[in-house]
Amino acid sequence: MLEASPLKTLSSAEFAALGLEEMAYIRPVTLPDGKPAIGVFSADGRPLAGASSIEAAQALVRQNELEPALVH
């Protein structure tokens, strides 16, 4: 008999917390004044910081002992 995947047994809150202490997502954003920037987001989607370039965002993420993941 097949066992249930561990992911299928997670609650919504547990699923949202996956990766919170391991990675941060980096993606292009538009600031309220219309200027482009790079946003840094937690694994659950909360905005954490902004940067002027992908390289600066990656450095910021790594300085905080997280692994950056680019999202397009």
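The record above closes out task 2.4. Task 2.5 opens with a second protein, given below.
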Amino acid sequence: METIIENELVRELANKHGRTRDSLLPILQDLVVRNRYLSRQDMVDVARELDISAADVFGTATFYSFLDTEVRGKYVIRICKTISCAMKGKNDVLTTIEETLKIRVGETSSDRKFSLLETNCIGWCHKAPAMLINDTPYTELTPEKVTEILREYIKK
């Protein structure tokens, strides 16, 4: 007989948000807030709790760039990759980040302090180029400005 390990957090979140298909995204978002990413087991547990397919949960989780399905660093840097940011110097800013942190897009530093990702529009096109570090937006970036910002995070 197969033993099913109960995921108390998933049950708690289903109690909070409900057990309908419409509850899926809020539950996944809360799991990311609490655990910093979605494990495969979390996705299976959510599917079981909501009585939907694991493929449906995985498809939703991987569609949204802010629902991390991999362990990330303490500080997740998401740099906007839209044309607006590119036209305003995003590539120079990105190069500065990569050189400063010694990681490339899609990587996490060996000390697990930083992860660097490109993402679609973060809603700051009017102040491009822009990035988020966790939930904090930084706008009108230059290589000099991003160096100062990163120095503060490196000190933390």
